[in-house]
What does this fold into?
Amino acid sequence: MTQKPQLNDIHVIGAGLAGSEAAWQIAQAGVPVVLHEMRPLTSTEAHSSQDFAELVCSNSFRSDDAQANAVGVLHEEMRRANSLIMIAADSHKLPAGGALAVDREGFAREVTERLVAHPLVTIKRHEITALPPEEWDNVVVATGPLTSPALSKQVHALTGEGELAFFDAIAPVVHFDSIDMSVAWKQSRYDKVGPGGTEADYINCPLDKTQYEAFVDALIEGDKTDFKEWETNTPYFDGCLPIEVMAERGHETLRFGPMKPIGLSNPHRDGERAYAVVQLRQDNALATLWNIVGFQTKLRHGGQKLIFRMIPGLEKAEFARLGGLHRNTFLNSPKLLDNELRLNAQPRLRFAGQITGVEGYVESAACGLMAGRFAASERLGNSCLSPPQTTAHGALLAHITGGHIAIDGAKGPRSFQPMNVNFGLFLAIEAPKTDAEGKRLKGKARSIAKRHAMSKRALEDWTTWCQNATSPLAAE
It folds into this structure.
């Protein structure tokens, strides 16, 4: 009997959500993996235990609705791929309505115990402070938003990109279908045609003087978040300021900044110029998501929804992402990574989790799942096609490796921002016009039916991908 050749180890750096999932997927494929974790020898400002996959903020994995919510679809896709994170989450779930919340200690303990017990997983507790040695020919870097400063500098030197740690200025992102286009209109300022665009590249929402002054007052009075002590020494990127800070400098400041009305004429009002205008810019290649230009903010999320829905045309806005300003570490992934999450400058290195520009617990783990499968397939000598963009995993992958639109052709890290999974990242689908009984669907009912159709397609395509991917990694 011919003995199978022994496979070389794959190395995974970081045992957070992404690294733990990547290591699990690799080991489940029959490939030995070394999981490197610096805690407890080197701690971080956010962690408190030595367990893997520690949840440092919320204990919620958000909606578990696999029919009408994109993150619920992601949950189900991961379950169908034998995800360790979902196994542990389901084992330690707590009552939380339609959300999946977990007992954080039990969850992290089970993730740790399963990896420690796996015969193909070797755990090494030490800090990686430089690029891995050359003999590590297949590596997944899953070091998260608190990546070691020493390793960050090494990656910076390798890629030639700017600093990796800074305050992100994140503007809210709105689903196009929720914008009232009977109030808003498409037009570029002065009808100017931008690179690769038209004279109507922006969506414009007009405010009269009364609406503008009420909006500015709400911004100033809104409830804001405070920076954590360990964030206070991190600089702003490019000196950008929260919109409410600009508002505090004077009531007219925003009218001469991101809300200036010049060069715009409202076709709904015979071309008149509004007192102020809020502009939205296309945020993804599918044109399903639009970000509110210049609206980086420290407002708390609940306040953002209330205040931004004061903007005419956005009264019923559905947000794919709310604004924020916080310390983070992530790559300019569309420029630096290929569609298997490999670093273009050094393909032996894959990146996974928040460092790639996904936002959220489940999204980080899903990125680790894909990185682990890609790495294992490569070690086994197989090809592994990327999941289609009709799936939640494929939609996330497309966003972080090229689905985001650069600003004015820019290629720097400001042309790319982290995002949670949402239906705006999926390939479009035509909304059903009638229900099962042939009754015509309209309004909210049609929107719900569209989400159900996208979810059904996603899970069917994901199952097919798991079964047909040319690797031994089909879902169990």
